[in-house]
What we know:
Number of domains: 1
CATH topology: Undecaprenyl pyrophosphate synthetase
Structural class: alpha/beta
Strand order of the largest sheet: 3-4-2-1-5-6
Bound molecules: 3-methylbut-3-enyl trihydrogen diphosphate, magnesium ion
Number of helices: 7
Radius of gyration: 18 Å
Number of strands: 6
Shape: globular
Amino acid sequence: MNENIPVHVGIIMDGNGRWATERGLERSMGHKSGVKNLKTLCTYIFERGVKVLSVYAFSTENFKREKKEVDFLMSLFVESFYKEFSFLKDNGIKVMFSGRREPLPRKVLEVMDRMTLETSDFDGPIFNICLNYGGQDEIVDMVKNISKLVSNQNIEIEDITKEVVNKNLYQDLPPLDLVIRTSGEQRISNFMLYQSSYAEYYFPKVYFPDFNNDEFDIAIEEFQKRNRRFGGNKK
Ligand code: IPE
Ligand code: IPE
Ligand code: MG
């Protein structure tokens, strides 16, 4: 059996709104279905041996949406995080968040902080939730962090390496091996730009609420067929 399982998988969970609209439902129902799907899916993804799962839950740009939708999503995050926290803990899943804190509401930050703190010494699979996340903002924030280190003389400019850059991103994670974007859109919409330099991309047509375990198996099969060269000429 080919057990070439990606270490780090990223999912751009897109299409919740269209999933709902096509069923004559409010967009919010699509977001609810997306959360429900994520619980089953993330359990399965870790069972298959993936070590790090990064999910794009809310981009910095998503604040441009109607206030009603943004408010709904913020409440959904709080509700789902509290509801699913014990499930994540019982499964030894280390939860982390990537993104800017500003302008997230305090109630969202509180539950994020609690989940981060209470799973911080877990050494199991990592569930990285990108919330109020933007890939370009992450790079800007990394440059600011490293600039501070240089001006405080904690590091010499000559000693800035790719490892130093990675350590100064929101989270110090291995590179992405596979990025899945559901809903058929073929763009990355500002998701983990630095980490995806040699990622394989996969764009299934299904909307996120329908991206089930079987769909994930198909993504893995597709990944296993790819010939990753990393700029070399092997295979
Ligand atoms: C993704 O689904 C979830 C978030 C961005 C929060 P969308 O809400 O973008 O759904 P579509 O793309 O409008 O169908
Ligand atoms: C990307 O989806 C962000 C998330 C899935 C959280 P969008 O729906 O916001 O992206 P665009 O606007 O289609 O590029
Ligand atoms: Mg979308």
